[in-house]
Amino acid sequence: MNNSPLNAISPIDGRYADKAAELRPLFSERGLIRQRVRVEALWLKALAAEPGIDELRGLPAAALTVLDALAAELTDAEAAEVKKLERETNHDVKAVEYFVKSRLDAVPAWRTRREFVHFACTSEDINNLSYALMLREARDQVLLPRLDTLITRLRALAHLHAATPMMSRTHGQPATPTTLGKEVANFTYRLREQRTRLAAVTISGKINGAVGNFNAHIVAYPQVDWPRLGQRFVESLGLTWNPYTTQIEPHDWMAEYFDALARLNTVLVALCRDMWGYISLGYFRQRVVAGETGSSTMPHKVNPIDFENGEGNLTLSISMLRYLADKLPVSRWQRDLTDSTVLRNVGVAVSHALIAWRSIERGLERVDVDANRLAEDLDSNWELLAEPIQTVMRRYGVENAYEQLKSLTRGQRVDAASLRQFVSGLALPESAKQALLELSPARYVGYAEELARKV
Questions:
Q1: What range(s) does the Fumarate lyase N-terminal domain occupy (predicted)?
Q2: Where does 124-371 sit in CATH, by number?
Q3: Which residues does the annotation mark as catalytic?
Q4: Residue 398, by phi and psi: left (phi above 0), alpha (psi -120 to 50) or beta?
């Protein structure tokens, strides 16, 4: 059986392979090996730069160049070589150590110094930094740019339809009018806020040995300031130093990262459901694409599948992200291995989010606003003006204002003529009465247009 997407178990590598392609180099097995090799090589380079480690002084430039090359890239063939070593050792990080040593054999200066590869490290020193780099690159290189594209599209839609009046629905019932642009602006603003929170998550790392105390380090080189060296190294990777850990970095930052991404996805679930509803009401028309089929039995259908697929992938992503956030910070005593298998699924949770975002973008590209349908709904619900009328009546001291409008409108349709007749009989100043008589559902939108344009 070959590696065709047709044979993939996960839809991320099968049906949706093209929609998560940017994440594959980051979260794949090859991506993890790449980061492990990078951390091993750069840690060795940091050791070589430490004045207190006499054995690594005076290395020629070529010895350091090979470390830079190892840290820079990893070919498919090299990743396969690491996997071969893993099958022999039955240990993924030890396989990386042996791979790095094999590459250093070609440099004479390293042949007597090979044992400084993985020096004083536990596997988690390498792993925690590797996953931190993976998740940082995924966020900064893929997720935030993709999210910015989606926010930009929503902002443009909000501005375009800032003045397009629309009837609201609270509890599913006709309610105070708004504009279509203002409702899109709400999501634009919410997503921008959640984007800020995701981008602000501090990504941490550690490199402090078997239980976080630099025990072996001090025995070998008591004169070296290991906490300072460890902090300097972690920060050189663009990460934040965590000085207090057990064998594992406690993953608290990961929980914050996954919670932030889950909250962001929850906002998009609400967007998908609202868009689905507006399409159902006819407020949006979906463009017909030649050759596509909406139903296997009903030829007329154009289904809102992009928003449905988006919602499905979002809720799947959210459930995984919530699990990861709850599970990963919990480890027995100084370390158990339950996080290891779980961590290998972080790319799955993130990929389902990215797949959903692409579906939403596609859905937004394929809808047009039906202004006539929006106007029709507003014109059929003049009872919406019961709110402003009774509010003006309250201002001028008209008794039982709310109750009068409730008796006139609750549970029944009121047309323009009957509502204006009611207003004409009110004991109001002529200017106030005239303003109410000129009001219509389509003109009763408050600051909606202004708010939509400001987002």
A1: 14-312
A2: 1.20.200.10
A3: 171, 295
A4: beta
Do residues 241 and 235 touch, judged by C-beta distance below 8 A? Answer: yes
CATH of region 5-119, choose from 1.10.275.10, 1.50.10.10, 3.40.50.2300, 3.40.50.300: 1.10.275.10
Compute the distance between CA of residue 363 and CA of residue 352 in angstroms, rounded to an integer. Answer: 16
How is 173-204 classified by DSSP, letter by letter? Answer: EEEEEEEHHHHHHHHHHHHHHHHHHHHHPPPE
Report d(CA 447, CA 382) in Å as an integer: 20
**205 Cβ contact partners less than 8 Å away, ≥ 6 residues apart:** 128, 129, 132, 234, 237, 239, 240, 241, 242, 249
Q: Span 232-252, mean pLDDT?
A: 98
Span between the terminal Cα atoms of the chain, in Å? 52
Containing 83, the helix (H) or strand (E) segment is: helix 76-89
Average pLDDT over residues 298-326: 90
pTM as predicted = 0.94
Among 3.40.1390.20, 1.10.40.30, 1.10.10.10, 3.30.70.1150, what is the CATH number of 381-454?
1.10.40.30
State the pLDDT confidence band at 319, using cuts at 50, 70 and 90: very high
Give the Cα separation of 215 and 222 in Å (integer). 10
For the chain, give the mean pLDDT: 95
Residue with structure tokens 């019961």? 386
Mention every residue, 6+ apart, whose C-beta is less than 8 A from residue 445.
165, 177, 178, 179, 182
